[in-house]
Amino acid sequence: MNPSQLQKHTPAGLLVKHLDWSDKQRRILTANCQAESYFHPDRGFEFDESDLPHFLLTNEAIDNRQVFTDWKTKGCKSSLIAGAWTRVLFHGGWEFTSHADEHTYNLQTETLFIDLRIPKTRRDIFSLLADGDKSRPICSVHDLDAQALRYYARQHVFAGFSKLTRHDSKAHYPWSCTRHHVMDWNYVGMPRTRPNKWWIEMKPHADGEAAADAWKEWAFATDSAGQHYYCEQWERRKSLNLRNNNEGDEDKGEVDRPMMLALRMKQNPQNKDGILIVVGNEFNYCLSQRPINSNQDAAHASLVALVDDAVTRGDLDAARQWLGSMQGGHGHVHTSQDNPTHNSWTIDAAIEFWKEGTSLLTPGDVTVSGSSVDDCTIIWNDAAQSEMR
Predict the structure, then answer these.
(1) What is the DSSP letter of 139?
(2) Which of 192, 194, 201, 349 shows its CA 20 to 30 Å from the CA of 133?
(3) Which DSSP string corresponds to 170-228?
(4) How far apart are CA 237 and CA 233, in angstroms?
C-alpha cells in the first residue's frame, strides 16, 4: 500500500496522531521546552555535568561499566522501585497520555533498568500496510519504504543505571532518582542538557505505610508556579512467577517478591552493548550497535528528526542504518509443565515488531560459566555477540 492509498484507507487523524507521538512525549516531558530553564542554581536546582543522562554515553574515555560497578559497591542502589511497571498516566502542562495510548514496559532492578514505550497507533498503521500488500511481508527495516521508516521511528527504548538518592525531611519527597542512559533510541549525537532526575512518591496504604504496587514520578525541578511540571504514574505489572522470600511464609501474610536478574554485555571490540533484565516471569532486553556519528547526524536533536530529514533528502540507507542499530523488547518466560527445566522466552512487544511472537532465547542458545552469581558469565549465541554478566 503506497502512502496515498494508506491515507485513503486510514481512519481520520490516525496518521497525524502517530507522527505526533514522539513530539507530544517531548512536549509533556520538557514543559514545552521550558524545563532547561527550570534547572538553574538560582532556582535551587543545580546539577553537575556528570548528572546528565548521556554524560557516560558521550565520554568514551570513561568506562561506564566500571562506574556502574563502583556505584553498586558504594551502595547507590535501592529496591524501592525495583520491579516490572506499566505507566497508566503521563501528564504535564495541558496535555496527557495514558495506557490507552501506548504500551509501556519499565523493568527496574536495584541498579539497571530498561524502559520500552510503544504507541498503540503503530500496530494499527502497520497492520494496514500489511493488509494492503500481503506479497511483501515486513521482516526487517530494509522492507520499510520512506513513509514507513518515519512511522517506525515513533517509538522508544532506553536503558542504563537508576541512581537513587535519599533526602532529608525538608525535601519534596524522601527519594529521588537520576537515570544514566547507556543506550537510547532517541540519542544520535546531541546529548540532553538537563538531568533525567525525578522525585519518587510511593502510593500509601490505608494505614499510611508506603505500598509496593504504585508510585509517581514527579519532575525534580518546579516551574514558575512552584509546581512539578510533569508527572508519570506507574503501577506494578502482574508477574506470574512470584517467589516468597522464605519458604513456609505462604500462610504468614508475607508479600511475594519476584525473582530479579540483570545482565550487561561485556565490553567488546565491536562496540556492542546490551542489557537483559528479568523480573518474575517478565523480561526486557535492549541491544545496540550504533553507527559512528557524522557531523550531519549529530546536528539532530533526536532519532525522529534524523529519520525525517533523511527521508526528505532521499537518503533511506542512513535512516535504515540508524533504525536498525538498536533492538528492544518485552516478553514472558514460560516454564513447560512436562519439563520444568525447559523455558520458552516469548517476545510479546518489540521495537522490531516482526519479532513479536518469536523466542528471544532457546535452550541451545545459552551457556553459563562460573560457580556463583558474582562470577557468573552467560554467553548468548556466541561470545563475540552477547557475553553478559
Answers:
(1) -
(2) 349
(3) TSSSSEEEEEEEEEETT-SS---SS-EEEEEEEEEPTTSSEEEEEEEEEESSB-TTS-B
(4) 13
Closest CA to 133 of 9, 38, 256: 9
Secondary structure letter of residue 142 according to DSSP: G
In angstroms, how far is the first alpha carbon of the chain from the final one?
Answer: 44
**Residues ≥6 apart with Cβ < 8 Å to 204:** 210, 211
- DSSP three-state, residue 57: helix
> Which set of grid coordinates corresponds to residue 322?
540508524
The span from the CA of 213 to the CA of 202, in Å, is 9
Q: List the grid coordinates of 15.
A: 496518521
The C-alpha cell that represents 62 in the structure block? 570513561
CA 294 from chain center: how many Å? 25
Task: Give me the torsion for CA of 202, 208, 211, 217, rounded to 10°.
Answer: -10
The model's confidence at residue 249, banded by pLDDT at 50, 70 and 90, is very low
Structure-model confidence comparison of residues 119 and 261, the more confident one: 119
CA 219/CA 196 separation, integer angstroms? 9
Determine contact, residues 319/311, Cβ cutoff 8 Å.
yes
Q: Using CA atoms, how far apart are residues 341 and 294, in angstroms rounded to an integer?
A: 47
C-alpha to C-alpha distance for 25 and 32, rounded to whole angstroms? 10
pLDDT at 253 (0 to 100): 37
245 pLDDT more than 50:
no
**Over the stretch 330-364, which tens digit does the pLDDT of each residue have?**
999 988 777 766 788 999 999 999 999 999 987 77
How far apart (Å, rounded) are the C-alpha atoms in residues 22 and 42? 31
Question: How much is the pTM?
Answer: 0.90
Place of cell 526528505: 312
Q: Which of 223, 380, 187 has the alpha carbon at shortest distance from 300? A: 187
Asked if residues 85 and 236 have their Cβ atoms less than 8 Å apart, the reply is yes
C-alpha cell at 241: 512467577
Residue carrying the nine cell digits 554485555: 265
